[in-house]
Amino acid sequence: MQVTETLAEGLKRELKVVIPASDLASRLDSYIEDLKGKVQIKGFRPGKVPTAHLKRMYGRQAMAELVNNLIQETTQKAIDDRNEKPALQPDIDLPDDDAEAILDGKADLAFKMSYDLLPEFELIDFSSVELERPVVEIPEEEIDEQIRRIAESNRPFTTKEGAAEEGDRVSMSYVGKLDGEAFEGGSDENGQLVIGSKMFIPGFEEQLVGLKAGDEKTIAVTFPEDYPATHLAGKEVTFDIAVKEIASPGELVLDDEFAKGLGLETLEALKGVIRGQAESQYGAMTRQKMKRQLLDKLDEAYSFDLPQKLVETEFEGVWRQVLADMQRAGKTFEDEGANEEESKAEYRKIAERRVRLGLVLSEVGEKNDVQVTDDEVQRALYDRVRQYPGNEKQVFDFFRSNPQALAGLRAPIYEEKVVDYIFSIAKVTDKTVTKEELMADDEDDQAEV
């Protein structure tokens, strides 16, 4: 095998690989000799089929298989011999004009392989990285309010005679119509609504006041302009209502008996559960804010050439998602006051950031022996499977037969473990913030890894 470097610009490499026809012929002879003892051909005793006959029958097919295997072997060997780390699998260019001659054993196997190298860079001292951990102190009033909301959803109601009032629960059937035609999702045979809960479209609940069991009424309401179902947004519709029952609310008593009805021993135990849930929710937001800080600092700290094919692959994924989101929303770039080419440039920057940060986190993990266990991947797989009830077997089979998809489950686990490793080294300072400050979205979530 002869390997000649034909291009070395930045991270780009291009090699020409030549394997003499004599080597191909030698390999073909060995292949045919091995085949002689395996095939059975009518008219010949086992192992006695003439080599020339086998070559006529299987030569080109065998040579095609040998060429394919040789390309894979020599590609990897060429990279190993050069002690290089490609960012992606090399692209192979085998001229079509030479294919027939190669298969006939009349030409050398010559092909070009091109690839981008992974960049080399030094890791910074992460103990010098300063991060702020936003912490929310959960007031007792918030816990009490959450318990009151739970109590409201479990409030007892008693059937009453007479007209519906604020706070009463109305049991009814209703059919929503747009331009006189029933619309999808606008009907319910056994609907229930507490007047004043603001759970329905604005203007709906108010028109239930005064109705009694057995009453029928058609009411008109207008959907909000920002209603998620675009075909209903801003539209006036009617609802044909048939009232089945009016029930008045019972008294709420927040005590140990109430907690027992929810499966807990005491009201204090219920408060502990609610506080734990709030701390877990805020803790996840805190970690997300810290991670965003870290990624921003890493983005500022590192500047190196990027493998362009890796960037292009990432950009294509991002751009496909952008176009799909716009199509689902029925929007165009003009609707958003944007220019497509300018938008592409912005999203390419996002792709470059993702690639850069991905390479940095990968290097951190490799240098510090961060590992993802099979059990962790298995748990992630089970979590994914649970998202598709009724299709569990198909999802399992897909991941087990698709190593790339399984790697897609491993990657985010690895990333989070690397981030945790850096957190453990960095200088972290707690900062008390309000719930609103913690929950405020940063401008560009898409810029994360």
TrEMBL record:
It catalyses: [protein]-peptidylproline (omega=180) = [protein]-peptidylproline (omega=0). It is found in: Cytoplasm. This is Trigger factor. Keywords: Cell cycle, Cell division, Chaperone, Cytoplasm, Isomerase, Rotamase. Consists of 3 domains; the N-terminus binds the ribosome, the middle domain has PPIase activity, while the C-terminus has intrinsic chaperone activity on its own. It holds the Pfam family Trigger_N. Its main location: cytoplasm. The keyword Membrane does not apply. Involved in protein export. Acts as a chaperone by maintaining the newly synthesized protein in an open conformation. Functions as a peptidyl-prolyl cis-trans isomerase. Belongs to the FKBP-type PPIase family. Tig subfamily. GO terms for molecular function: peptidyl-prolyl cis-trans isomerase activity; protein folding chaperone; ribosome binding. One of its GO terms (biological process) is protein transport. GO terms for cellular component: cytoplasm. It is an enzyme of class 5 (isomerase). Its EC number is 5.2.1.8. InterPro entries: PPIase_dom_sf (IPR046357), PPIase_FKBP_dom (IPR001179), Trig_fac (IPR005215), Trigger_fac_C (IPR008880), Trigger_fac_C_sf (IPR037041), Trigger_fac_ribosome-bd_bac (IPR008881), Trigger_fac_ribosome-bd_sf (IPR036611), Trigger_fact/SurA_dom_sf (IPR027304). Coiled coil: none annotated. It comes from Stappia albiluteola. Residues 167-262 form the PPIase FKBP-type domain. PANTHER family: TRIGGER FACTOR CHAPERONE AND PEPTIDYL-PROLYL CIS/TRANS ISOMERASE, TRIGGER FACTOR-LIKE PROTEIN TIG, CHLOROPLASTIC.
